[in-house]
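Retro notes, item 3 of 5
We never archived the inputs for the nicotinamide-adenine-dinucleotide complex last cycle. Fixing that now. Sequence and ligand:
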Amino acid sequence: MAILEEPIKEVSLIKNFIGGEWLESKGEIRDVVNPATGKTIAKVPISTKDEIDAAVKAAQEAFPDWRRTTPLARARCLFRLKELLEENFEEVSRIQTQEHGKTIDESRGETRRGIENVEVACGIPTLMQGYFSEDIASGIDEWLIPTPLGVFGIISPFNFPFMIPLWSAPYAVATGNCVVIKPSSEVPNSQTRLAELADEAGFPPGVWNVVHGGRTVVNGMLDHPGIVGIAFVGSTPTARDVIYPRCGATGKRVIAQGGAKNFMVIMPDANVRATVLALMTSFFGNTGQRCLSGANLVIVGEDGFYNSFMDAVVDTASRIIIGSGLDEAVQMGPVRDKEKKERILGYIESGIKDGAKLRLDGRRNIKITGDYPPTCFLGPTILEDVSPDSKVGSEEIFGPVMSVMRAKNLDEAIEMANANSFGNAHAIFTSSGKNAREFQYSVTSGNVGINVGIVAPMAFFPFSGMKESFYGILHTQGQEAVRFFTESKVVIQRWL
Ligand code: NAD
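Structure as it came back at the time:
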């Protein structure tokens, strides 16, 4: 199979997109490195407080006219954006692979999921309809109008550079708000391309802004009185300790989606072949850097079932093809950078120290397809006899590591999952409707899979989460996003 051409061919300095103009930042400049090749592909600015202030000002200035633009006319910009994304689908996908490392198929899936949110937001004329009651008293009517609020900040993590801002931005602008997006500075290229396409789609200057950088930009958003709300996706420490409390303190509405530690529970009545395949993409897809990835595999059943199931898992995992994501034959790319690899290696060491048995070692002697430096590559790693209370069994690793544990029965498996502090996306594999119902009823996670290893809600469902995986009330995507980005205005009229 072919090795695809890299879409970014020259190293250029990424600019901020503020008020419809591409502006060079005065901030410090950092390299953006392709983790597969080790080559610098772009320079990204760590923008200053003045630059985030300028973006908020541009968005505030654009808001009065944009909110008076009819929902149908706003939707037309989104329809054009969808068309442009379809036309540039392959380029946008390859940019994600080049900056992040994920396989091209994973990037194509990410692009598709992003576009689906644009498609859903195109329905805004009906999605943001209010409601009306005639005669609440004699000759008096009452109605509700969802109204936009102003300028929203959108802050995203490194693992889905293109899609995650699209869980929020299409709904924010469709409802009549303006946005300032702060992508992860590790992967700034796909949001730059998206902003170019949003500009071409005809959003007026100031409606869609992008400011690159790190904490200074985030703090600038959190402190800015002109920002009415924040849609954040990232790790739990940032969501829980920075975003959520600071939004509370400054009176901003907030969505703060955090990290995960997902339990995949295998019942002895599961379809083994289909389950093993689903587990491969769940644990090792996106190189384990997915908030929906399987982390802990809990097997219920006797030794005979456990042994044959684990033999099939280890055999399949050991055959995963590792290499550059632009090689179409490759099934697992590198992790995003050397520091993340070191962190994952630290977890594997700690698991071994705590008594886990290393069944498949992805740390060394892995076969990398093609001529790439090993710096960011890891193979699938499987640890058995992991205690759910140990560091490796309880904390988010965010890498291609499967921690295996056993449970006597379904109740014990559910107890193990519920004892964990995260609650993002647990799943059960079973052919019993009774087991499936009990699991989905009792498990404390916002997304639940039944014979599905990656519980990714479609764009017309909320992207949920419980416990330390989510702080807020309304979620990104679909109807809940429309509600998040609007306030209910209630009107009562006596007809004189
Ligand atoms: P992160 O929390 O380090 O960074 C997320 C964003 O916050 C980035 O834009 C970053 O610049 C900014 N940031 C980081 N620390 C900050 C601080 N102290 N103050 C202000 N801003 C700060 O997350 P990450 O490493 O980029 O992404 C991986 C994490 O995201 C994982 O924990 C993963 O589970 C989570 N995630 C969650 C979901 C979900 O839907 N729940 C989806 C994708 C990723």
